[in-house]
Amino acid sequence: MIYTRFIACGDSFTEGMTDDFVEGQYRGWADRVADILASGSPDFTYANLAIRGKLVRQVVSDQVPVAMTFVTGKETVVSFHAGANDVLRPNYKQEIVLPLYAQAVRDLAASGATVLLFTVLERTGNTGKTADIWAARFSEFNKNVRAIAQEVGAVVADANEDSFMSDLRFLAKDRLHLNPMGHDRVAQGVLEVLGLPFAPQWRTPLPPAPAIPFLRRSLNYAQWFTSFLIPWMWRRVRRKSSGDGRSAKYPTPISWSISRPPDMSRSSLS
């Protein structure tokens, strides 16, 4: 099928943190997918409504209704990814978040769009009580994603389908957001589930990582703790979000010129 419009909804994952910085914006997997869609349709348009730090209720109330006004039919892809920020919070209430997520997907499907959903990695190699709690929460979250996708006929990009995606080398220094390699892998996975040209080797795991000396690991952890974890926790205490005051990077559908010439013969494998 030829898709002529792509509307992306969500949080930092879909905004593109922390991919390459292009013309003052993070590029991200969604821009990478838009490149391929634009190469297949001269009339292609793209909107990215995602804003970092947003909770599911904010994405549902602020982005989904807007996205629905842009839908022209099945030739419009609407991606929806929200809820991970909720799951990470101590006061997470799945009895509120999961039904809210499911109803938003139903509404998007009823608009006539091709709906694209995502599961979330349940494990990233971390251990301990907190990691176990998050893994259990994300497992239930993912069950909800798959169930509503089956109900409405949505397309799912499943992060847990291949274990290689849990490689920490796909993450930025904050250990939360994807780096350029990670965004490229996600983009290739999305292209595959949409039935579009993709790099066939995108599922190839990275080569084994060299051993990191204990002292270097300790220094890396200390740097991460002070540079990323403490500021994140401080925002939670103050009930602040990294997305406060920010606007969507492409709030209405625009004609999309390819941000970087697509090379479908390769993926980020090193």
Automatic annotation (TrEMBL):
Transmembrane segments: none annotated. CDD domains: SGNH_hydrolase_like_1. Residues 242-270 are annotated as: Disordered. Gene3D superfamilies: SGNH hydrolase. Residues 9-184 form the SGNH hydrolase-type esterase domain. InterPro entries: GDSL_Rv0518-like (IPR053140), SGNH_hydro (IPR013830), SGNH_hydro_sf (IPR036514). Coiled coil: none annotated. This is Unannotated protein.
